[in-house]
Automatic annotation (TrEMBL):
Pfam families: Metallophos (PF00149). Keywords: Hydrolase, Metal-binding. GO terms for biological process: lipid A biosynthetic process. It comes from the Bacteria. InterPro entries: Calcineurin-like_PHP, Metallo-depent_PP-like, Metallophosphoesterase_sf, UCP008292. GO terms for molecular function: metal ion binding; UDP-2,3-diacylglucosamine hydrolase activity. It comes from Pontibacter burrus. Gene3D superfamilies: 3.60.21.10. Signal peptide: none annotated. This is Metallophosphoesterase. GO terms for cellular component: membrane. Residues 9-211 form the Calcineurin-like phosphoesterase domain.
Amino acid sequence: MDKKRKKTRIAAVGDIHVRETDKGKWTDYFKDVSADADVLLICGDLTDHGRASEAEVLSQELRACSIPVVAVLGNHDYDQNEHTEIRKILAEAGVNMLDGDMIVLEDVGFAGVKGFGGGFNRAMLAMFGEPMMKQFVQEAVDESLKLDGALSRLETEHPDLPKIAVLHYAPISATIKGEPEAIYPFLGSSRLAEPLERRQVLAAFHGHAHVGTLQGETAKGVKVFNVARPLLQKLDKPLPYYVLEV
């Protein structure tokens, strides 16, 4: 990486859970983050109940945001089967919605997917047993492959730029510590860590685990941050969003 390269301030938050009643609630928030950072990442659960009407509210609130926004959907955004419309509404509002895609902003490459569950390390679910179990595992495999594809394109087209991954589900167990261990398989999967290490990602951000740990790293040292808003608000020194300078 060029040592003379201008630093980029990346703000990240997940699980904002915007509701239909939130009109006017987020204006100051997005103004503040615009003053603090060069790019904003929203790591899934943009809406609370997965309704397009909630995305409409968010799209209006984002008018106060004057920096580029990159986002992925989360599990809540799928709940009413309106995720396609949610994605469309936010894309039309100028949000860079990623789903196996990549984008370069402020001399940083971003790749994003929602991710999926499946567990971690030796407890990771295998492709075995009933068809429904295999489908569950296949979803995690597919999300991992989408992430790897996006990172591969960044690596090929922009080899000198730092790479950042945007996720909803966790790629490591360290950042979900604090949640009940019984639900770990539903909070993320080690399959998501494989492309992070293979493509030498600088850092990855996720949400989903409201009671977790802010920072961890993969076995090969890729930094991972859990930026779920409920978690950031519960820190000893509460944060409205996490800022990483790259």
